[in-house]
Amino acid sequence: MNYEQTLAWMFAQLPMYQREGKTAFKKELTNIVAFSKELNFPEKKFTTIHVGGTNGKGSTSHLIASIFQEAGYKVGLYTSPHLKNFTERIRINGEEIPQEKVCSFIKAHKHFLERQQLSFFEMTVGMAFDYFASEKVDIAIIEVGLGGRLDSTNIITPAVSVITNIGLDHTQFLGETLSEIAFEKAGIIKENVPVVIGERQVDVAHVFISKAEAQKAAISFASEEDAFYATGLLGEYQNKNSKTAVHAVRKVKGFQISEEHINNGLLNVVQNTNLKGRWQVLQENPKVICDTAHNKEGLGLVLRQLEKESFQKVHMVLGVVEDKKLAQILPLFPTQAIYYFCKPDIPRGLSEKDLQEKAAEFHLLGERYSSVLQALESALLNANQQDIIYVGGSTFVVAEII
Length: 402
Description:
Strand order of the largest sheet: 4-3-2-5-1-6-7-8
Oligomer: single chain
Number of helices: 17
Distance between the termini: 28 Å
Mean pLDDT: 93
Helix content: 40-55%
Number of strands: 14
């Protein structure tokens, strides 16, 4: 199979949470443990940092990776989901895994994958670990896919575990309360492995402290550090992520990391890791900004950042997935904005009609469009040079316009 055929096989034959939703979510680690054994336990052949949380875990993972790159190390980075290309999920020093490596890996293990009925995410995690081991990375930053305790990445024993924060997202899998979600996220805390919590939140701090004590894991809260670190990522909300990243890096032993490496890593993160979709400015006059924030906490931060911009009118190109709790996120959006409702091009995307109708209940008014690109094109036609166009609501909306 060529690359396109390989991806088609991966997507079509095996369920994928990002596209299909709940039916693709497996609440156990049996498959990934079996796959690790089949691959001769690749995750044990390099140092890892494990990064979970509700918001900011992707940015934090990239920031950590960039710091180690500045120090001259060979750095693996595993993140999900991808925006444009599958290979974005698996990178070494910012370079995506070659397409031929994806093809050869699937070809070599296709019979096992079919027999064991691995999910899309499970096979991708195995691919990442195997690639990092074969390329002999010095360290790999591993972002949790969903939750933590039962996430396929949770077979690693990292040098440090990181949990950025807790918010109400993926409640159909992780629980309806912050404490329930925190319990799942705390599942990445390992025995005698230091854990860094990005934000001390009153409702959930006790969950992490209790888990850390049970695991004899030293726990610290990055938010309690009185420091500011400049970063190349736009948006004031990235201050929390940069502080968390620095705090985590300083917990890793056996690596030589200077203050210069830290400062340069934070500033050069986009160039070093090719991070996209975080308060990314696509053009000026009119200014077009996209951001992958998609839950209450993340959108709250991004929309507060938007209020600080200078503009005449705001045009909102907005699309969401069907399991999104709209009653929680729609009240965050400005009623004076002009809306362009659209459906991301995935099976679990919410129809533009349903989104428009629900948004109207919160006095968010606008037209609907059958695609994200059509919505953006209409916004560009209607906006003047002093306006701002914001594109978001879902990672998949952003993916279609980058």
